[in-house]
Amino acid sequence: MNDNLTRRDTLRQFGALTLAGLAPCAFAQSDRTIRIVLPVATASGVDTITRVAQAALSKALGHPVIVENQPGAGGIVGTTTLVKAAPDGFTLSFVSNNHVIYPSVYKSLPFDPIHDITPIAIVGSTPLIVVVNPKVPANNGRELVALLKSQPGEMTYASSGNGTILHLAAEMFVDEAGATARHIPYKGVGPMLTDLIGGQVQMGVAALPSVQQHIKSGALRAVGTGTAQRLAAAPDIPTMVEQGMPGYLVEGWFGFIGPKGLPVAEVKRLHDAVTAAFAAPEVREAMAKQGNTINVTSTEVAGQFFRSEMVKYAKLVKKAGIELQ
Q: Is the pLDDT of residue 25 over 60?
């Protein structure tokens, strides 16, 4: 009997020691933080969207989620961090159109935007708005076009950086207007908006989520959207199409990616979590208020979309005459 008790005690002690050794490791793994690296500055459309969905993503992923802004070089800095990360599902990113514009505007890149990532999903799209400083004497798209034509090459337009979607969208507007203007690039949407509101630059194109509050406060004036129809979130802003610019159709989109080499099972888990997070009622409501459209694609469709968008933007960059950096 004493021998049995001794053996039982030994087994219990061994089991307790084993669990004690495993528990911290298991806890650390379950409590590990997921980084969502954004290759954009704060106040951008993608930044606003990500932060609205942050809590729902944390819940769906089962881990604390932090958002890390790493702007620079039009987004190359943050994306470089993403592609160099371990393919373990703990470093991810939300990217925009900029991701597939890179190859058309930079002579060399430290990564391949198609082959050095794992597509997870295209999550949705966001409307782009042409805005001006309130001191600019143009209340709508037609008046802005007339003003641009009356001052060839004198007016200035801001962007979040050379070769970004906001640069391209503004250049497309000026081109569609049959006018010319001077481009003033900034290091991110935040600095761009600061100077646009301050009057250091006269006009620009931005995602609605990033300028919605400034339009409401009167700090900026919206003159038209790049959408085909008016937005439910901003019904008072006319489209450029209805203002005589049928060719001005441009929107932002945002997608979820990971580093190259993510295991198939991990990709599915992440895709399911993103789908669940953006289906959450509070996220849906917030996205609708910002004018965003949520339509989470499959992983396969996301990969195809990245490739087709790269081809599309290569043509647009060439047409706009944007010089290689």
A: no
- Closest by CA to 82, choosing from 103, 110, 59, 62, is 110
Q: In whole angstroms, what is the distance from residue 65 CA to residue 35 CA? A: 6
Whether pLDDT at 254 is above 60? yes
User: Based on the number of CB atoms within 10 Å of its own CB, is 87 exposed (0-12), middle (13-18) or buried (19 or more)?
Assistant: middle
DSSP 231: B
pLDDT digits (tens, 9 = 90+) for 193-212: 999 999 999 999 999 999 99
What's the CA gap between 180 and 168, in Å, rounded?
14
> In the predicted model, is pLDDT for residue 93 greater than 80?
yes
Q: What residue type is 324 in one-letter code?
A: L
Instruction: For residue 41, give every residue at least 6 positions away whose Cβ sits within 8 Å of its Cβ, in sequence order, or none.
Output: 47, 69, 71, 160, 187, 188, 189, 190, 191
Contact present, 268 and 100 (Cβ < 8 Å): no
Tens of pLDDT, residues 56-91: 999 999 999 999 999 888 789 999 999 999 999 999
Distance in angstroms (rounded) separating the CA atoms of residues 78 and 72: 7
Which residues does 167 contact at the CB level (< 8 Å), separation at least 6?
159, 160, 161, 183, 185, 322
Q: Which residue has the tokens 């600061």?
A: 194
Q: Where are the beta strands (DSSP E) in the chain?
A: 34-38, 65-69, 91-96, 117-132, 156-159, 182-185, 203-207, 221-225, 251-259, 293-294
Q: What's the whole-number mean pLDDT along residues 309-323?
A: 89
What gap in Å lies between CA 48 and CA 106, rounded to an integer?
Answer: 27
Dihedrals φ, ψ of 182, to 5°?
Answer: -95, 130
In terms of Cα–Cα distance, which of 169, 171, 177 is closest to 138? Answer: 177
Q: Give which of 154, 179, 157 is closest to 167, Cα–Cα.
A: 157
Burial pattern 289-316, b for ≥16 Cβ within 10 A else e, equals ebbbebebbebeebbebbeebbeebeeb
How far is the C-alpha of 310 from the C-alpha of 308, rounded, in Å?
Answer: 5
